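queue> pop job 88
queue> type: inverse folding (structure -> sequence)
queue> payload:
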């Protein structure tokens, strides 16, 4: 999956964090541990890949997850509308392929039952299908149309695909303060075809290796969107999840916020819960 972190920049604050970390339960302390032996700045490509690999490694083994969330759409005038949905994920243990996820809209009534199923791949085009209850049919999403907005939000279809490690190349740019933490700043470029982005710049916390912010650049290499991750919580003493994601479109002035709730892991989901037939049953 994507990227992660938590640390302070001054020596004095670093000592404070060290004391606090030593006082934490062992499992939480391990989840916050820094990674020794990263390649140094003289090889930014190797350093960037190592950081992304560590971020990905820390999310292995969750098996499956369920979450409820709210999607708040904000237009350029500040008006808002709200939707409620569910998000299901099935981890793929095959390192040569990606995870699966299913998004189901529950409210408001005019979008109830609309659902999106994604099979993420590495370099091959992801498979995506959408169920439209008004038409009572499953529609395949074209691989050339995944940069389009999803359900009127500022998230594109490709944003809902799993951020598999092999989908991108990586380059470390610098380390810098991000709020009260220190972050690795990493540039990643898609290796797959038909992305709506030329590159992404991510701020990954140097301690827990969670991404704190991502910038998305369009096909003209202009800043298009910024995604901020906040309210991280540790689940099963290992898996960090941000409970608030805010996407801002700098070119339109619109925004979308996802507020996550009720995360549950290892719930027994399997392949049949992520089939095209499951799209129709989801509502």
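queue> result:
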């Amino acid at each position: 999956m994507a990227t992660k972190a938590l640390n302070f920049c001054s020596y004095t604050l670093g000592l404070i964090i060290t004391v606090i970390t030593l006082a934490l339960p062992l499992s939480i302390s391990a989840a916050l541990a820094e990674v020794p032996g990263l390649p140094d700045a003289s090889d930014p490509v190797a350093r960037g890949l190592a950081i992304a690999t560590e971020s990905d490694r820390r999310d292995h083994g969750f098996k499956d997850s369920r979450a409820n969330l709210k999607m708040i759409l904000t237009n350029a005038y500040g008006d808002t509308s709200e939707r409620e949905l569910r998000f299901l994920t099935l981890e793929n243990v095959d390192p040569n392929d990606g995870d699966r996820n299913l998004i189901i809209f529950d409210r408001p009534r005019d979008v109830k039952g609309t659902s999106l199923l994604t099979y993420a791949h590495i370099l091959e085009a992801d498979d995506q299908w959408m169920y439209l209850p008004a038409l009572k049919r499953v529609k395949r999403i074209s691989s050339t149309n995944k940069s389009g907005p999803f359900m009127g939000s500022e998230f594109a279809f490709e944003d809902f695909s799993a951020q598999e490690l092999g989908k991108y190349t990586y380059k470390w740019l610098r380390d810098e303060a991000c709020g009260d933490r220190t972050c690795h700043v990493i540039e990643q470029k898609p290796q797959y075809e038909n992305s709506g982005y030329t590159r992404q710049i991510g701020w990954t916390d140097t301690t827990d290796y969670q991404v704190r912010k991502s910038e998305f650049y369009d096909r003209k290499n202009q800043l298009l969107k910024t995604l901020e991750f906040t309210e991280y919580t540790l689940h099963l003493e290992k898996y960090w999840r941000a409970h608030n994601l805010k996407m801002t479109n700098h070119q339109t002035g619109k925004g979308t916020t996802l507020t996550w709730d009720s995360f549950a892991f290892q719930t027994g989901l399997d392949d049949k819960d992520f089939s095209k037939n499951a799209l129709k049953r989801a509502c």
